[in-house]
Design the sequence.
């Protein structure tokens, strides 16, 4: 019981760290706009999506990010918007949607800086669906393709060989 709680706490701490990274990357600009009294309409679709994601409004974030992907073919953040759509689906426990979204990112944006994270999140989403064979295949592929990305490689290694996840299962 204690081990299970510790594992769940580790997962929560990892999520908090992810949120802090998001806030470091995008938060100050968004907070400046909001504190200055600017309306959400003045935010770009991507900025609005990040604001919604940070507030836990994942369905709204999906729509904002989707508008970036579909409506502005010249936007340089289309790959990042796809990644955050996938992350939003993960937060909503819609793992099949997340897997499909991450796959779209992989296929449409093979040079994206979010590629390794997308591979990892596909594997972890299969794991959450209790599809261990698929999870292992995707995580092994992520380990091979993303060895140079220390952060992602560490996450993959932990998923494959480390502690059990929040539901107490190892691959």
Sequence:
């Amino acid at each position: 019981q204690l081990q299970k709680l510790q594992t769940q706490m580790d997962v929560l701490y990892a999520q908090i760290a992810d949120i802090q990274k998001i806030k470091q990357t995008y938060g100050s600009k968004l907070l400046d706009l909001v504190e200055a009294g600017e309306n959400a309409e003045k935010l770009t679709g991507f900025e609005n999506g990040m604001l919604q994601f940070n507030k836990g409004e994942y369905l709204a974030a999906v729509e904002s990010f989707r508008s970036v992907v579909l409506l502005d073919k010249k936007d340089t953040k289309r790959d990042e918007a796809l990644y955050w759509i996938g992350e939003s689906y993960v937060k909503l426990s819609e793992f099949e949607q997340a897997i499909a979204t991450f796959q779209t990112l992989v296929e449409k944006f093979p040079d994206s800086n979010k590629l390794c994270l997308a591979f990892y999140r596909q594997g972890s989403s299969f794991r959450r669906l209790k599809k261990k064979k698929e999870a292992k295949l995707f995580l092994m592929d992520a380990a091979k393709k993303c060895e140079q990305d220390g952060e992602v490689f560490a996450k993959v290694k932990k998923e494959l060989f480390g502690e059990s996840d929040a539901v107490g299962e190892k691959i």
In short: The radius of gyration is 17 Å. The CA atoms of residues 117 and 151 lie 9 Å apart.
